[in-house]
Design goal:
Blueprint: H1 17-26, E1 29-33, H2 37-54, E2 60-61, E3 68-73, E4 84-88, E5 92-97, H3 100-115, E6 124-127, E7 133-137, H4 166-177, E8 182-184, H5 200-211, E9 216-220, H6 225-230, H7 245-261, E10 267-270, H8 287-299, E11 304-308, H9 321-326, E12 337-342, E13 366-371, H10 387-394, H11 408-412, E14 423-427, H12 443-454, H13 460-472, H14 476-497, E15 531-533, H15 550-556, H16 567-570, E16 572-574, H17 585-608, H18 616-648
Helix pairs in contact: 2-3, 7-8, 12-13, 13-14, 14-17, 17-18
The structure holds 4-O-methyl-beta-D-glucopyranuronic acid.
């Protein structure tokens, strides 16, 4: 049944009958060389996938015969632990890797070739991931609610553990299929309960499932856990000071306990001294001191400590805050500590400049945090395919090193400063909804994040094409229509919500879905009767532009040079200011909202033309999402246009209802 559950792992019968008979002749059984659990997973997946795709039982056998798909490991320095090769020989296919995980990734890649109906006669493929840490961050709570989740409750039924659900295996398969190798399963606004001894055997059971698919389990840790978890004992710990001996011993014991149960435990992710969370600053210590205390204790077990840099104070401009706190700490974090920084300096708005901490921390291991769940980009109602945005972020040249580099991608793949503990974290959109992501097209963001973590050089076009073919098959018209919609959806969302880089127009303390521009005056804009925007220049404003390399200071700091899409982020601008297009700023705002809305209507119509080409269940489900999307886009358009008309009292010279 086509309810979205299979995501991109749909192993339906190969549609092209010619190809099907060639595949059937070529692939008749699977052979696993080795007995590692991850290799057995690879074998099982190959058997399952081939059986579905070929419409006949493809068994796992001990002996290699004609038509074997052989998966195994063999020493190969060039591939690293996670790379693989897939080679077609005359009578068999060989999937080889230096490590088990590589072999598993190769098995999935091989199946994807068949799903995409590729001719496999000369298959000879080698690949390896670019970044070492390819990580999901779940913001899942103990009561199974998900912070900023729009796809139901948590997949993880904490209170049932160590009882295991079948879906955990499918979850692990989904991750492995796109090369995710680490997952943090609970919210960064962390309950200390996750570390309670009684919970750990259950988490160990879950870690076991993940382990056999090459994924390491991590926990978000509450920095005040020693206080919370010793409360009520005969001599409770009453501080969480990282330099306090009892606090250190408590963490040591806790970490020892975790590793006894979960030998491959990944480590802790910590949100400290941010939005009310406890942390080392409560005791006059720095973020680095706080992080290192945990990192040192994890190091003995090959564990890592990821420390978030997302700190701000209040809702006044916080663009500079993180940089001011973290940049002076560069070089102080220990070797297995990693600083995780959101892509932009604010908070996952539809458009932000790249956080100047990228390029600002050359002596610190860094991860980038991207948000796959669409907190500020339409939840599960607005289609907003984020890969084009992530591409622009990863491709950003910081100009802080030699030439124009390093780029953000260089930094998070370890190329920039020759580092290993670097990578990409995605705040994920998965929940227990049948389709996993709340609306079916949202799965493209999950897939796209992982593919970019694997290889940031892939283009948005390549990634979305792959996802469409895996999800909807090879129908050309479906492919081209859907691709055109998806690749325009991010800029479309931007155009009817927040053009010119203003950002943050939802109520800050709310759900971050509906427009509420009056509530973010000062946070993201200073709107008056004369103009709008935010002066963040070094010359006359907050000084934010001064945090970049000179190259960018000159561009962002100047009204003439600043790119349109960031204009109102960097500058306060009169409504009558003319953009490069010749239009006034206010006219651009009006037109952008009207045009963006029209494009959503076009998306809805274009999808309608695919009726009959996509199975009825998924067709109707996605059509319903577009119906809701149109309504919400209209609401954004009308609210924002009315807001700026109210201040400026300038009528539109273009089309749309504002033309009086
Ligand atoms: O702005 C905020 C989100 C919070 C989130 C926080 C963070 C997990 O609205 O829901 O908390 O960012 O990233 O820590």
């Amino acid at each position: 049944n086509e309810d979205g559950y299979d995501l991109w792992l749909r192993y339906r019968l190969v549609a092209d009958s010619n190809l099907l008979s060639r595949y059937r002749a070529a692939f008749t059984h699977v052979v696993v060389q080795g007995n590692h659990a991850v290799l057995r997973s690879a074998g099982a997946e190959l058997a399952r996938g081939l059986s579905g795709l070929l419409g006949r039982s493809i068994p796992v056998r001990d002996q290699i015969g004609r038509g074997a798909v052989v998966v195994g490991t063999k020493a190969n320095d060039a591939l690293g632990a996670e790379g693989f090769t897939i080679k077609r020989r005359t009578d068999r296919v060989e999937i080889t890797a230096a490590g088990e995980r590589g072999a598993l990734y190769g098995a999935f890649r091989f199946l994807q070739q068949l799903q995409r109906q590729r001719p496999l006669d000369h298959l000879d493929l080698t690949d390896r991931p670019a970044s070492p840490l390819r990580m999901l961050n779940h913001w899942d709570n103990l009561n199974r609610s998900i912070e900023r989740g729009y796809a139901g409750k948590s997949i993880f039924v904490w209170d049932e553990l160590p009882g295991l659900r079948e879906r955990y295996v499918d979850y692990a398969r989904v991750l492995a299929s796109v090369g995710i190798n680490h997952t943090v399963i609970n919210n960064v606004n962390a309950s200390a309960e996750f570390l309670r001894s009684e919970r750990l055997p259950g988490l160990a059971a879950l870690a076991g499932v993940l382990r056999s698919w090459g994924v390491r389990l991590w926990l978000s840790a509450n920095y005040a856990a020693p206080i919370t978890l010793t409360a009520g004992q005969s001599s409770p710990i009453t501080v969480a000071d990282p330099l306090d001996a009892r606090v250190q011993q408590w963490w040591q014991d806790k970490i020892d306990e975790i590793y006894r149960l979960i030998p491959d435990f990944g480590g802790f992710l910590v949100k400290a001294n941010s939005e009310g969370q406890p942390g080392p600053l409560d005791y006059g210590r720095t973020h680095a001191e706080g992080a290192n205390m945990l990192a040192d204790r994890l190091a003995a077990y090959d564990g890592k400590l990821v420390w978030r840099s997302f700190v701000h104070e209040g809702f006044d401009d916080w663009a500079e805050y993180q940089y001011r706190v973290f940049q002076p700490l560069d070089g102080q974090f220990h070797a297995n500590a990693v600083v995780q920084t959101k892509n932009g300096p604010i908070d996952f708005q539809v458009r932000e400049p790249v956080n100047p901490l990228f390029g600002g921390l050359p002596q610190t291991n860094q991860m980038i945090e991207l948000q796959v769940t669409q907190e500020y980009t339409g939840h599960s109602t607005h289609l907003c395919y984020l890969v084009p945005e992530w591409k622009s972020i990863l491709g950003f040249q910081t100009h802080t090193g030699t030439g124009s580099g390093p780029s953000v991608a260089d930094i998070v793949t370890g190329v920039a400063y020759d580092q290993e503990n670097v990578g990409l974290a995605g705040v994920v959109n998965l929940g227990d909804d049948r389709d996993w992501t709340g609306y079916q097209l949202g799965a493209a963001n999950t897939h796209g994040f992982a593919r970019l973590a694997w290889n940031p050089k892939l283009s948005a076009d390549e990634i979305v094409t792959e996802w469409i073919e895996l999800t909807f098959g090879g129908d050309r018209q479906v492919g081209s229509v859907l691709k055109a919609i998806m690749l325009r959806s991010w800029e479309t969302y931007e155009s009817y919500t927040s053009p010119l880089g203003m950002g943050y127009l939802t109520y800050p303390l709310g759900s971050h879905f509906a427009p509420a521009p009056t509530t973010t005056q000062n946070l993201s804009h200073h709107t008056t009767a004369e103009g709008t925007g935010f002066d963040r220049t070094a010359a006359t404003g907050s000084g934010f532009t001064g945090l970049y390399a000179e190259h960018w200071q000159n561009i962002y700091g100047s009204l003439e040079n600043c790119p349109d899409e960031l204009l109102l982020f960097m500058h306060w601008v009169p409504y009558t200011h003319r953009l490069r297009s010749g239009k006034t700023m206010i006219q651009h705002i009006y037109d952008s909202h009207f045009d963006g809305y029209e494009r959503v209507v076009e998306f809805r119509r274009a999808w309608g033309r695919l009726a009959g080409r996509v199975d009825q269940a998924r067709y109707a489900d996605i059509a319903a999402t577009f119906d809701a999307h149109v309504i919400e886009a209209e609401r954004w358009r009308d609210t924002i246009v009315a807001y700026f008309y109210g201040f400026s009292r300038i009528v539109s010279s273009g089309t749309g209802w504002l033309q009086l």
